[in-house]
Structure formats: C-alpha cells, structure tokens
Amino acid sequence: MKFCVQSKKLKRFYVEFILFFKKILDFLEGYAILYYDAVYSAGKEYLSLNISKKAERTKEIIGVCLDCFVEKGLTVTTTTDLCNANNLQNGGIYYYFDTKEEMVLACAEEAISRIEQGAFSIAFEDIKDIANMMGHLGTLADELSPVMRFLVSVCVSQEYGNKVKPYLVQLAGRYPYYTKKIAEILGCTAAEVEPYVHLSILALNNYMIFNERALFLPQIEAAKKGLMQLAKRKG
Predict the structure, then answer these.
(1) Which of 41, 63, 154, 168 has the fewest C-beta atoms under 10 angstroms from its C-beta?
(2) What is the per-residue pLDDT for 197?
(3) Rounded distance, CA 109 to CA 69, Å?
(4) pTM passes above 0.70
(5) Angle, to 10 degrees, between the axis of helix 161-172 and the axis of helix 130-156?
(6) Which residue stretches of the chain are H helix?
C-alpha cells in the first residue's frame, strides 16, 4: 500500500515535471521565433539600406564616369582613369559594374538624360517667349556639345553601337510629348507644331555634333518663324 502511494506520487511528479519542462520548451521556442524575426528584420533592413546606398553611389559614379569619358574620349579612357576619378582602388569600379560595356552603356543613358533635361526640357521654361527660347537653345547646345559627341562615339562604335539603340529609340519616343506640350501652350494642333519641333531638334542635334553655326542658325530661324506665327494666331 505504501509502495503504491509512493509510486503514484512519483508518477505525478514526473507528469508535473514533464508539463513544466514542456512549458519551458514552449517559452524558449516562442522566444527563438521572436529572436529570429528580430534578426531577420534587422538583416533585411540592413541589406535594403546597403542596396539603397549602393544604388546612390552607382548613380554618382555614372555621372563621374561620364564626365571622364567626355573629357578624355571613349577609346582613350581606361578603367584606371575611371577608378581614380571616383576615388576607388584600381579595379574597384567592378564592384558597381560587371563589365566595362555595362558601364559605358550606363554612361550613354546618362548622356541622353542630360541632353534631354538640359536642352529639351529646359526649353519649356521659355516657350511663351519663342524668340528667347530659340536663342537659349544655342547656348544650351554649346554647353551640351561635348556630351553629345561622347554619345555619338558610343553609337558609331562596333562594340556598343547596336546595344545603345534602345536608349535612342526611347528618346525619340519622347518627341511627340514635346510636340503635344508646345501645341497646348500655343493653342494649336500637334500636326501644326510637329514640323517645327522636329526641325528644332534636328538643328540642335546637328549643332551639338558638328558645332557648325552656319547650318544651325538658318534652321533655328525657320523653326522660330513658324512657331511665332502659330503663337500670333492664338493671340
């Protein structure tokens, strides 16, 4: 009888111990999940921050590389030049780009962006004063001419020419947007404005490439005259 009582107490002790031990395990499991979630979230945030910083730094490097290519030329500029310009160790540029081709194409895309924002977009600031806008285009063309020449050197190169075409097509796709905006401001149709917009863009591009005012001025004057006539009609 005494043995049975002790046996029951022992079983109860084991059961209570097991239940207590299970509670400890459940607690540790919950704590581990919380700890894992915290570590995972912190790691994810750290990785996201690093990716963001790398993206910002890459954008900065592209701008510096473009300036370097513009100054020295596409074929003359070396990766060492690009690393030095960006204060990177020799070969450090490949942390941001897998190949030189990727780097050149990124610079070509940035060149297109500079030309569009620097010449085409800024022109809208003067659109209500067409004579002033056309005069401003010449100044902008002078400033952006070296960038355009770099872009042309990429376009005509056997190594990069075909691969840069999508960026040029994308830029050409923006021309209807500019045509529409100018038509809205002048109060006329896009069809009426389109020849003068295309003539202006053609003149601007040719001048940035060849730097020949004798060709540029007559084209710009013809475009200016046509746009001013459309503007007078609105008034």
Answers:
(1) 41
(2) 86
(3) 13
(4) yes
(5) 160
(6) 2-72, 79-85, 100-115, 122-123, 130-156, 161-172, 175-186, 190-210, 213-234
**Cβ-based neighbours of 62, under 8 Å, separated by 6 or more:** 103, 106, 107, 110
Closest by CA to 138, choosing from 229, 66, 200, is 200
Q: Which long-range contacts (CB under 8 A, 24 or more apart) does 71-78 make?
A: 71/146, 73/150, 73/153, 74/104, 74/150, 74/153, 74/154, 74/157, 75/153
The CA–CA distances, whole Å, from 99 to 66, 92, 94, 105, 210 equal 16, 12, 7, 10, 31
The Cα 144–Cα 206 span in angstroms is 12
Rounded distance, CA 2 to CA 26, Å?
36
pLDDT of 179: 87
Amino acid at 39: V
- Phi, psi values for residue 108, rounded to 5°: -65, -40
- pLDDT single digits (tens) 164-186: 988 888 888 888 888 888 888 88
pLDDT given at position 216: 84
CA dihedral over 123, 124, 129, 130, signed as positive or negative: positive
Q: What is the pLDDT of residues 54-86, one digit of tens each?
A: 889 999 999 999 999 999 999 999 999 999 999
pLDDT tens by residue, 137-162: 788 888 889 999 999 999 999 999 99
Closest CA to 62 of 112, 7, 116: 112
